């Protein structure tokens, strides 16, 4: 093994963490190496445990240590109300805002001709199946206010027509072109409260 | 185990990494959870391997997977020239600058009456022992240009007087009040080249 191998290898993996550059990764490694028992082994164990336990929820697509996920299993949630999100980051953002009392459905993306994402890449058929099987009464489209997100909302609305379910979307408070998961919690809660027919 | 426990635990440990806030930790966790095999298990293994292997060098105090460290074992280094640094971060910064061909000695801090750091907390006796045992001819004091760093340089210079070794310090290019490990490599190299008697 070369001289500084384990340290250099650690720095190089740390620098791949989104938000940490090479310089920050080096400092983080050094700080952790000064107290390996407290700073390194617990993180190693947490990474392993999460990698082993966490999987997508078979029902909604959320990431959780159990499937169906904690939200889908929660008897206090309104099962007639399903909020459709692009991805898990947006689901977590809405949860942090305590803005939604129903269930979720993770679409797994938005339609994007440029990125080659078509309807078959999104979790739309499973959504239709859930609506039919679970007595869903309202679907809230909480998609990003981008061109692709808006086009996706229109497309999903069309696909949901035969299901005879109310389809609403986030309205007030979502800035144009903005991603959901960077919004403050009040903005998210307001947008959800003032949702309107799609 | 509670609903989102492994994920929340991971986020909370990631948010303790210097440079990552809570929001960045959450995003990093989510991105890693989407590809656990590629992003999480290798990092877990690297953390464990580094925590197990890395220790302070018994000779100079550098952190390395072997002791004596790779620098102390390197036959191409000039063993008559020892550069004294406050900590390992500064040693690594000088190594990145390829500015020093000799060995190092990590002092483990600087004198600080406010922080309660006295001479007995610094690795000065081991430095004197090294000078006596290893035929050191010059000690370069590469300490921070702060009040505490300058006082420490004076103190170490006094302690080294009986050893009859040349004592120099970094001069040109180190800005007042600046930490060494944030300086660019050219500045570090210039400061080392233009070192002068302490
Ligand atoms: Zn679920
Ligand atoms: Zn060493």
UniProtKB/TrEMBL annotation, chains A, B:
Record keywords: DNA damage, DNA recombination, DNA repair, Metal-binding, Zinc, Zinc-finger
Zinc fingers classed as C4-type: ranges: 57-72
Pfam families: RecR_C, RecR_HhH, RecR_ZnF, Toprim_4
Position of the signal peptide: none
Domain annotation Toprim: ranges: 80-175
Domain of life: Bacteria
InterPro entries reported in the protein's UniProt record: DNA_Rcmb_RecR, Rcmb_RecR, Rcmb_RecR_Znf, TOPRIM_dom, TOPRIM_RecR
SUPFAM superfamilies, per the entry: Recombination protein RecR
Role played: May play a role in DNA repair. It seems to be involved in an RecBC-independent recombinational process of DNA repair. It may act with RecF and RecO.
UniProt-listed NCBIfam families: recR
PANTHER family assigned to the protein according to its UniProt record, in alphabetical order: RECOMBINATION PROTEIN RECR (PTHR30446:SF0)
Membership in a protein family: Belongs to the RecR family.
Name assigned to this protein: Recombination protein RecR
Highest classification ranks of the organism: Bacteria, Pseudomonadati, Pseudomonadota, Alphaproteobacteria, Acetobacterales
């Amino acid at each position: 093994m070369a001289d500084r191998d384990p340290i250099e290898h650690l720095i190089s993996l740390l620098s791949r963490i989104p938000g940490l550059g090479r310089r920050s990764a080096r400092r983080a490694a050094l700080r952790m190496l000064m107290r390996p028992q407290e700073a390194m082994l617990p993180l190693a164990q947490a990474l392993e445990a999460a990698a082993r336990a966490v999987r997508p929820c078979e029902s909604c697509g959320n990431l959780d240590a159990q499937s169906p996920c904690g939200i889908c299993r929660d008897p206090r949630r309104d099962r007639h109300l399903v909020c459709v999100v692009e991805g898990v980051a947006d689901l977590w953002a809405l949860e942090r805002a305590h803005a939604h009392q129903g269930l979720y459905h993770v679409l797994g993306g938005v339609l994007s001709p440029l990125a080659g994402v078509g309807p078959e890449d999104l979790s739309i058929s499973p959504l239709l199946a859930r609506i039919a099987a679970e007595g869903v009464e309202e679907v809230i489209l909480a998609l990003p206010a981008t061109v692709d997100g808006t086009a996706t909302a229109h497309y999903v609305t069309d696909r949901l027509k035969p299901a005879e379910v109310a389809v609403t979307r986030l309205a007030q408070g979502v800035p144009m072109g903005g991603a959901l998961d960077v919004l403050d919690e009040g903005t998210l809660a307001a947008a959800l409260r003032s949702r309107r027919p799609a």
